[in-house]
Amino acid sequence: MNVISIEAQNLISGFYSVTKIPATQNTKNSFFTTSSFVQCHGWVPFKTHNCFASLSLKSIKQKIEPKTSVEKSGDTVSDKEGIKTTKKKKLAVFVSGGGSNFKAIHETCVAGSVHGEVVVLVTNKRGCGGAEYARNMGIPVILFPRAKDELDGLSSSDLVAALRRFEVHYILLAGYLKLLPVELIRAYPKSIVNIHPSLLPAFGGKGYYGMKVHKAVIASGARYSGATIHFVDEKYDTGKILAQRIVPVLPNDSAEDLAARVLQEEHKLYVEVTAALCEERIVWREDGVPLIQSKQNPTV
């Protein structure tokens, strides 16, 4: 009999721990199967009423926030020498595919180049590459939205509650193909960003994603494309633009050629924007346009 570890069980009702249980084989009342937990950290089912006891809020905080020798004050901490620094921002990343942007962000967070921490991954496809990478890295994975044939997917209200439990500061969409629910957008105002593989507002909106974008760019005869990071509103790709990176469209480009060139810039741009978010360097102009302050010269 195999033994598997499940992290962050039922956070909505106050459960956050690592518990070892015997693996079962496709029982009807189970919220998971052995195939869902190939790695040590698997899916995070948030409604297990019959298997686990609930822990206190104090024990949840002990699991999420390890004890340190610093004094906390708001979003800053002071070390023993009294030097104040901003606490790491907690990030939730949403993916539907391979998650290469997610990987780039996570790697730079781990390396310390970005003052943040990916605390949870949300996906609508349990077997996608991004979810597999998260499980390998010990990052809890949430399934959203709830599908008719999925027992462990969350509703919109449950998702918001779960992200609150993880104390998420920012939500990063990295190839997530579902429209976000209004409840989530309103719960995280000016805190959700998305990356799109074109220079918005061109080649954006419903139906424009992945290779479809690059094929449309080439067919249009456009000489330039690129990547856009924008804040998320209640429609596809219409939120305020935060950052862009230009990529030339070469005369003999295929959609695959252009996609590869754009993706390289996406990785760089998303890491830079994530760093700015975590360092609180986003300011809003009077007309509602977001700007990124220079790290070297905050007045710029």
TrEMBL record:
Pfam families on file: Formyl_trans_N (PF00551)
Top-rank lineage group of the source organism: Eukaryota
Residues of the Formyl transferase N-terminal domain: 89-274
Alphabetical list of InterPro entries matching this protein: Formyl_transf_N, Formyl_transf_N_sf, GART, GART_AS
Pathway assignment: Purine metabolism; IMP biosynthesis via de novo pathway; N(2)-formyl-N(1)-(5-phospho-D-ribosyl)glycinamide from N(1)-(5-phospho-D-ribosyl)glycinamide (10-formyl THF route): step 1/1
GO molecular-function term, one example from the UniProt record: phosphoribosylglycinamide formyltransferase activity
Cellular compartments annotated: Plastid, Chloroplast
Any single biological process term in GO: 'de novo' IMP biosynthetic process
GO cellular component: chloroplast
Keyword check for Signal: no
Primary location: plastid
Gene3D superfamilies, sorted: Formyl transferase, N-terminal domain (3.40.50.170)
UniProt KW keywords: Chloroplast, Plastid, Purine biosynthesis, Transferase, Transit peptide
UniProt catalytic activity: N(1)-(5-phospho-beta-D-ribosyl)glycinamide + (6R)-10-formyltetrahydrofolate = N(2)-formyl-N(1)-(5-phospho-beta-D-ribosyl)glycinamide + (6S)-5,6,7,8-tetrahydrofolate + H(+)
Similarity comment: Belongs to the GART family.
Name of the protein: Phosphoribosylglycinamide formyltransferase, chloroplastic
